[in-house]
Amino acid sequence: MKAQEIVGKVVEQNQNQNPLSYVTILLKDLKGNLVKATITDENGKFRFKEIMPDEYLLSISYLGFKTIQIKTVVKNTVLDLKIVEMELEEEELEGVTVIAEKPVIQVEPDKTVFNVDGTIGNAGVNGLELMRKAPGVRLDNNDAIIVEGKAGVLVYIDGRQSFLEGSDLTAYLQTLNADTIESIEIITQPSSKYDAAGNAGIINIRLKREKGLGTRGSISSTLTIGDYVRTNNSISFTSRLKKWNMYGSYSNYVGRSTGFLDLYRVQGDKIFDAKTNSEYDRFSNNIRFGTDYYASKRSTVGAMVSFNSNDSDSRSTTITPIIDRATQRIDSILKAPNSSENETRNFNVNLNYRYQDTSGTSLSADLDYGNYIRDRFNNQPNFYTTANGEILNTSITQQITPIHIEIFAGKLDYERKVGKGILETGVKVSQVNTDNTFDFFNEINGESVLNLDRSNQFGYDEKIYAGYVKYNYSRNKWKFQAGLRSETTDSRGILTADNENADETVSRSYTDIFPSAGITYQASQNNSLALLYSRRIQRPNYQDLNPFEYQLDELSFRRGNPFLQPQYTDNIKLSHIYKYTLTTSFSYSFVSDFFAQVTEAVGENTNFLSTRNVADQQVYNLSFSYPFKVNNWWRAYANVYGSYNKYTATNPAFISTSQKTFGLYAQNTFSLPKNYKLEISGWYSSPSIWGGTYETNALGSLNLAIQKTWDNWTVKATVNDILYTIPWSGTTQFGDLFISGSGGSDSRNFNFYIQYAFGNKEVKNAGKRKGGTEDEEQRVGG
Predict the structure, then answer these.
(1) C-alpha to C-alpha distance for 727 and 732, rounded to whole angstroms
(2) Quick one: which H or E segment has residue 171?
(3) What is the per-residue pLDDT across 737-750, written as a single tens digit (0 to 9) for each?
(4) 610 and 625 in contact (C-beta within 8 Å)?
(5) Cα angle at 55 between 49 and 57, to 5 degrees?
């Protein structure tokens, strides 16, 4: 007898028959033994493959709805259950109606999904703070994202690369309110259909675009009280008609925060004990609007526009006693009351088309354009005094450093059934053009005079041509996928200085092949195994290639490295899933030409920060993830990881090092009477290595939140970093230069959050329509 399929669609029992996503469906034999399990997709559809003809029992369950039991008989044809309606289960608990919820964590074959709505502690926080809670993800002391022990993750928004880097990416993520985020996808082993960039894989932030006919939205505000007061505000909406879907959101960040940085530097025969205190004022805005037109049952045309702005002012005071190592006497003190003004504008537009027929053949096309502009002005007075405060000399400088980046990208993806599997193929072309100006001024007799020896312009152009092929095949308990991606990179960097002798051009052209493969085995009804492999590339950030000398203070500079080489990573991962909840994974990564930010001594007093290829890196990572229900009123989630990082020096000035790191994130959510919820959460990271150079000490955070909901309102109060354990400390050495450093911000703070939801309550939050550049595996593209 030939194996068959069971298909169907689960909807809500009402006039609109809204599709229900993430419904759990268990296929059992008549003795109650589990044969297979699945969940419905975003359209409420489900499919069981390779089912032998027999009698079965289908159990269909979803929180907030009555469980359905269906006895079925599979014969020698496909069994189509068509429409299965689920009835709301209303319990008379003091007027409370049970509302359907998604699980906090969903583990899928190619990614882990962190559903933002699954925990009350997410209400009122921003996108950067959410990263700490995602499984296998942590932030280092510079707010860079670390995944499974590796830096270099690529961040996408709704399947499209953000292209923001460093402090600009941090500022953008802080404008995103959790109200507007549906889920965070962590893709550690991307297949060949994904861009090869991203040493640690891809994090894709999926913004809400609710389903169902009608209009629905929300307005929210978060007040944060730290050393100063700041606020996040947002409004979002979705309006769905029969042929059209429109969605949009606006969010902002307004207020002041503080930070400190202490660097004890030993260089030659001197000690520099620098202590910096800073204040940051920022006003950031994030606007997004999109529309989809359903031209037919098979074709969808879409467009999306987004705009992000960030206006920030910072003031810092650095006091650096300069000490003679032999006598321990203060030779002089450098006082630097610096200020900076920064304006950033980032505009993106996407046009997309998708076609899909009933045979499984699909075609999608995307065109993207991005425009990034940043204007920065730095005023840096430097006063040298004696230990008694007598001024020895003064040096006052200013820098004007505008940056303009334009991004063009287009791609085409095609998918169809071939033989007993699915063939996917596609092409992509992208181009990035950057212009950077660095004007350095010395203040002489009260006037700013351009310093021609230290002023220059840097232009960088990069083109990437990519193509891929991938094949998926399933048989019985086995699933196989293999793919190959090719990327050709052409780049050219041109440094043009006012001093003509300093001009410099660096051109490169190289082609790389990126294989990927995976095997999944359903060993039993409770055990699933997966073995995945992928090869990745991490190209240098545009600013890391810029050879400008950017002054931090009189003694410290930052400069790029136009000869910086990309780093390549080979990843292999073995994972085991027990009863669809407990996930255990082990991964090994080898990173060649690892690049890190290092501090180099120049002369007796000056040091430079630059990015260099310094080592080969090996990363071993073991992690456990387990969401579970203790009882009806207590839910918990725990993610525990341990990693071993080993750096083997390829640069003679770099010291080979290794480090074992242990970390965890845990949360407990308690449902209390009268729609109250209490959540206790926290994270911990043992001593680790930051950026391959800093050996940092342990850090963590303990947080407490309480939430109340009624009608369309949600109110929440949170205390973050109760024990004030987020600030970092560590040491680094490169050559003869040694630094002991520490830093932090006003991370211990109080949040008050309020949200009002409006519109048609029949519109569901369960998922999004698959359109534009999305496909069955929710592909990430540029």
Answers:
(1) 17
(2) helix 166-175
(3) 888 999 999 999 99
(4) no
(5) 80
Position 232, amino acid = N
Alpha-carbon distance of 526 to 577, in angstroms, equals: 8
3-state secondary structure of 25: strand
Strands 68-74 and 54-61: antiparallel
Average pLDDT over residues 468-473: 92
Q: What is the pLDDT of residues 326-350, one digit of tens each?
A: 999 999 999 999 999 999 999 999 9
Q: How far apart are CA 473 and CA 414, in angstroms?
A: 17
Cα gap 656→617, rounded to integer Å: 10
Residue 601 — very low, low, confident or very high, per pLDDT cuts 50/70/90? confident
pTM of the model: 0.75
**β-strand pairing of 606-631 with 556-559:** parallel
Helix or strand run (H / E) with residue 45: strand 45-51
Give the C-alpha separation, 394 to 597, whole Å: 30
CA dist list (Å): 649 to 572, 619, 641: 23, 15, 26
Tokens 């006497």 belong to 329
pLDDT in tens, 480-504: 989 999 999 999 988 787 665 556 7
d(CA 204, CA 223): 27
Q: In terms of Cα–Cα distance, which of 738, 722, 735, 645 is closest to 690?
A: 645
What is the distance between the alpha carbons of residues 265 and 481, in angstroms, rounded to a whole number? 51
- The dihedral through the CA atoms of 45, 50, 52, 56 has a sign that is negative
Distance between CA atoms of 442 and 399, rounded to whole angstroms? 9
What is the largest distance, in Å, between two alpha-carbon atoms of the chain?
96
Measured CA to CA, the distance from residue 421 to residue 291 in angstroms comes to: 33
Q: In the β-sheet with 54-61, what is the strand arrangement from edge to edge?
A: 34-39, 24-28, 54-61, 68-74
User: What separation, in Å, do the N-terminal and C-terminal C-alpha atoms of the chain show?
Assistant: 46
DSSP 211: B
Torsion over CA: 665, 668, 674, 675 (sign): positive
Cβ burial, residue 48 (10 Å; 0-12/13-18/19+): buried
Q: Residue 561's pLDDT is what? A: 81
Comparing CA positions, the residue from 431, 424, 525 lying closest to residue 472 is: 424
Q: Is the pLDDT of residue 685 over 50?
A: yes
The whole-angstrom separation of Cα 349 and Cα 291 is: 12
According to DSSP, the β-strands at 299-324 and 330-356 are antiparallel
- In degrees, rounded to 5, the angle at the alpha carbon of residue 99 between the alpha carbons of residues 98 and 101 is 130
Strand partners, 240: 214, 245
CA distance 766 to 631: 24
Rounded Cα–Cα distance for residues 158 and 154 (Å): 13
> Which residues lie below 8 Å from residue 742, measured CB to CB, with a gap of 6+?
260, 261, 262, 727, 728, 729, 730
User: Distance between CA 490 and CA 484 in Å, rounded?
Assistant: 20
Residues 6+ apart with CB under 8 A from 570: 533, 535, 536, 589, 590
Mind giving me the DSSP string for 220-271? EEEEEESSSEEEEEEEEEEEE-SSEEEEEEEEEEEEEEEEEEEEEEEETTEE
Query: In the structure encoding, which two tokens stand for residue 385, read together?
Result: 């005094």
- 500's CB contacts (< 8 A; 6+ apart) are none
Give the separation between CA 384 and CA 393, rounded to whole angstroms: 5
Cβ atoms of 720 and 751 within 8 Å: the answer is yes
- Bridge-based pairing of strands 54-61 and 45-51 is unpaired
Report DSSP state, residue 295: -
Q: How far apart are CA 633 and CA 706, in angstroms?
A: 14
SS3 33: coil
Amino acid at 644: Y
Closest CA to 165 of 150, 182, 179, 145: 145
Q: How far apart are CA 342 and CA 149, in angstroms?
A: 32
